[in-house]
Amino acid sequence: MEDFSNIRSLSKERVEKCMSSMQMGTQMVKLRGGSKGLVRFFYLDEHKSCIRWRPSRKNEKAKISIDSIREVCEGKQSEIFQRYAEGSFDPNCCFSLYYGEHMESLDLVSGTGEEARTWITGLKYLMAGISDEDSLAKRQRTRDQYPSVV
User: Fold this and answer.
1) CATH number at residue 19
2) How far apart (Å, rounded) are the C-alpha atoms in residues 56 and 35?
3) Domain count, the chain
4) Is the Cβ–Cβ distance between 124 and 2 less than 8 Å?
5) What are the DSSP calls for 20-53, one per residue?
6) What is the pLDDT of residue 133?
7) Which residue intervals of 54-93 are DSSP H helices?
8) In this predicted model, what pLDDT tens digit does every residue of 20-52 receive, in sequence order?
9) How buried is 16 (Cβ within 10 angstroms: 0-12 exposed, 13-18 middle, 19+ buried)?
10) Which end of the chain has fewer CB atoms < 10 Å from its terminal CB, N or C?
């Protein structure tokens, strides 16, 4: 389980900067099992409920909902990163998301360490909000009130 204690103490400005940057989007390399990585444009959707990327053959299914993310790991810790030669990527630019019931991983390499920090911080902030029962209940009520928006 993620420890969100340091995330809750972030300044409002820092959080807003992360959210804004994530919604504008970032070009990152999405790593896969055996082949070279794919350059994709990743962004946080307007409702701050999903990470999406393009281009993708999955089209509308190319997304991961924030509430399905179980963990965000900094650096080259995942099994996928271990398959690449040492020195292939700057560890400060690498991070992984573990999501879903089967703990699938999305392994990403950003252009700079600052971009990676923005995404890691922003995702952990969003996850902390979702782990808060009040926030989850509010979100559900909003969905119930405005079903066509989702």
Assistant:
1) 2.30.29.30
2) 16
3) 1
4) yes
5) HHHHH-EEEEEE-SSS--EEEEEEE-TTSSEEEE
6) 47
7) 79-82
8) 999 999 999 999 876 788 999 999 999 999 999
9) exposed
10) N
Which domain does 74 fall in, by range?
Answer: 5-145
Give dist(CA 110, CA 92) in Å, integer. Answer: 9
Q: How many residues are present in the chain? A: 150
Q: For the beta carbon of residue 60, count every other beta carbon within 10 angstroms.
A: 7
Alpha-helical runs (H) found in 1-150: 5-8, 12-24, 79-82, 113-131, 133-145
pLDDT recorded at residue 130: 62
Residue in this structure with the two tokens 């993310």, named with its chain if needed:
69
In a domain, 150, yes or no: no
